[in-house]
Design brief:
By secondary structure, the chain is of the alpha/beta class. Helix content is 44%, strand content 10%. The chain has 13 helices and 7 strands. It has a 7-stranded mixed beta sheet, with helices on both faces. β1, α2 and β2 form a beta-alpha-beta unit. The relative contact order is 0.09.
Length: 387
């Protein structure tokens, strides 16, 4: 099937999809669903609510079955075990059919009254809208580390957001195509989409205190989030230039080690004491050797990246002018270019040219094969003379 036909057969996205990850929130599900329905009733848009049960061990699966059985626009996805919030959002994004996709938590701390504000911000031209819990109803041991984390991520990633940890966000469905989430990457979706060229926005949202249950996140999420952030940075800012990050680190280590060794050499030349038993000598040698290792890793990364870049293009196409018959938005560039090459081969196959067109200026001559010449008779071989 050609790309034009595939694009025509694809269903048009309309309405709003609200994705809600659920983990042991049995008491809040019915209340949250009713609040969302009350807000969306005033909107002139179709909507669906997608609950993703992330391996709940309480009565949440039974509550979701009741909601899905009584309401046609409630969909449910149940995991066999707890896979994490990123996996739950990934499954919800795959099941969403709306033009806009909104994510929110199931603990009633996110206010559904903010949904029209998210939709309005998307209609203004943003592709991703992140919520900002300007006033948080959480204890200090959660708010203080979160502020430090948000400041560091905003500074290093280049995405100017005040709250990366807020799960209340809105997306255009096209921005989520091809996005793969795992680990703790759900916090860095705006960073991932920013480096793919999408426009990021932010609005302040109301944040309520938790009514039921307890928080599912502890202090260890900062460590996991920090490690995942390093992965995000390597796969976004330095994805096409690994030598920059590893080479920079190697240069810093190398220069520091060289300075230390030069200082020790000066002391040795001036006769200011032996240097062989100084720990500083070992440190300088270690830094120099480490610098060579980092630079080597960067060169290998450049080689691997260069080989992989031939298979796919690192860009996405937003729109085209006078190329609609060749390129389609939303289709990976490599696949589009391969399709163009295939069409060119089909439109100019040498084997399918008519002989009358190919030889219109010369008469067609049929070559008659001459009969093969008869092979000569074998010459008689004289017998040996008898003794």
């Amino acid at each position: 099937m050609k790309l034009d036909e595939a694009a025509a057969d694809a269903p048009e996205r309309t309405g709003v999809s609200i994705v809600v990850p659920v983990y042991n929130e049995q008491d809040s599900l019915a209340i949250l669903c009713e609040r969302i329905r009350a807000v969306m009733a005033a909107q002139a848009q179709d909507y669906e609510i997608i609950f993703v049960d992330d391996g709940s061990t309480d009565a949440s699966p039974e509550r979701l079955k009741e909601l899905a059985g009584s309401l046609d626009n409630v969909r449910c996805i149940a995991f066999r075990r707890n896979f994490g919030k990123a996996a739950a959002l990934d499954a919800g994004f795959a099941a969403a059919s709306g033009e806009f996709v909104i994510t929110m938590d199931a603990d009633l701390q996110d206010d559904p009254q903010e949904i029209p504000n998210f939709i309005a911000k998307l209609n203004e031209g943003c592709d991703v809208v992140s919520g900002w819990k300007r006033v948080r109803n959480d204890p200090v041991h959660k708010t203080l580390p979160s502020r430090v984390f948000n400041a560091v991520v905003s500074r290093l990633s280049g995405v100017k957001l005040n709250d990366f940890n807020c799960g209340f966000k809105a997306y255009r469905a096209e921005a989520l195509e091809g996005l793969s989430l795992y680990g703790e990457l759900h916090r860095f979706i705006p960073v991932l989409l920013h480096w793919r060229g999408y426009r990021i926005g932010e609005i302040p949202v109301n944040h309520h205190a938790r009514q039921f249950g307890r928080s599912k996140y502890g202090f260890n999420r900062l460590l996991k989030g920090g490690l995942d952030f390093l992965s995000v940075m390597l796969n976004t800012r330095f994805a096409t230039r690994p030598l920059h990050v590893f080479g920079t680190a190697g240069a810093i280590f190398g220069l520091t080690g060289t300075a230390i060794l030069a200082y020790l050499c000066v002391l040795w030349v001036l006769g200011l004491g032996p240097i062989g038993d100084r720990p500083l000598l070992m440190l300088g040698m270690l830094l120099v050797m480490t610098s060579f290792q980092f630079i080597t890793i960067g060169l290998l990364g450049e080689f691997i990246q260069r080989q992989g870049s031939r298979a796919d293009r690192p860009y996405t196409i937003k729109a085209t002018l006078n190329l609609e018959h060749k390129l389609q938005t939303g289709v990976p560039a490599a696949r589009q270019l391969a399709e163009i090459a295939r069409r060119m081969r089909e439109s100019h196959p040498d084997e399918q040219h008519d002989n009358s067109v190919r030889h219109d200026r010369a008469p067609y001559r049929q070559i008659q094969q001459s009969e093969p010449a008869p092979s000569p008779e074998p010459r008689p071989v004289p017998r040996r003379a008898r003794k």
